[in-house]
Specification:
Number of helices: 7
Number of strands: 6
Length: about 200
């Protein structure tokens, strides 16, 4: 979650390389694509797509006396459950730790215990309410990417960094992200992909 700021939704949309109408049009087109196993291009894989979706682990957020230790114990137990499911993808949707920029305290070790593919997108507790470039660089070192697109079993995933949709001094990074995200939407629409968009905060929220 994030506190309200002075920039209106209209102002944020003006900074994007796509607008609400374009986003919804592309999303509707992708959602209405007849089931063909996913994208029309690339290798098609059979079988159901199994995802474990984990929102806001936020280690250190709990109210216990030693909330960090308690949250860490819960995370380890949840990873045991995830491993027992053996999904195609383990998707974390941001706020990996409660205090901004502390995700690299525990997650390098925790990630080694997860047996399946892991993708994490950053939240405001990872990047800062106004994204800080150093936090983005450190997030990539821990989780492999701050945003990425990939295909699993014919499904296209666009996993984004929604903090670029908020005010940030990192203008060059923001512009590069906006172009990447718009290009990925258009590519998924053109290739008739069944698409899942994963971000901490949805576009135009």
């Amino acid at each position: 979650m994030f506190p309200s700021d002075k920039q209106s939704t209209t102002e944020i949309e003006m900074n994007m390389q796509f607008n609400r109408r374009e986003f919804l049009t592309a999303a509707a087109a992708m959602a209405s694509t007849p089931w063909l196993g996913g994208c029309l291009t690339g290798k098609q894989e059979e079988g159901p797509l199994v995802i474990t979706q984990c929102g806001d682990p936020q280690l250190g957020f709990g109210e216990e006396k030693d909330s960090h230790a308690a949250d860490l114990a819960r995370a380890r137990r949840e990873i045991e459950i995830i491993n027992s499911i053996s999904p195609d993808l383990v998707l974390f949707q941001g706020d990996m730790a409660n205090v901004v920029g502390t995700f690299d305290r525990d997650w390098p070790a925790l990630l080694k215990t997860i047996k399946n593919r892991v993708v994490a997108v950053p939240g405001n507790h990872d990047m800062g309410n106004a994204l800080i470039g150093d936090n983005a660089d450190r997030f990539r070192k821990v989780f492999g990417a701050e945003y990425q697109a990939f295909t699993i079993k014919g499904w296209r995933f666009i996993a984004g960094n929604s903090q670029y949709w908020r005010p940030t001094p990192e203008k060059a990074r923001q512009q590069a992200y906006e172009k990447w995200f718009a290009d990925e939407l258009r590519k998924a629409e053109a290739e008739h992909c069944k698409t899942i968009i994963a971000t901490h905060i949805p576009p135009f929220a």
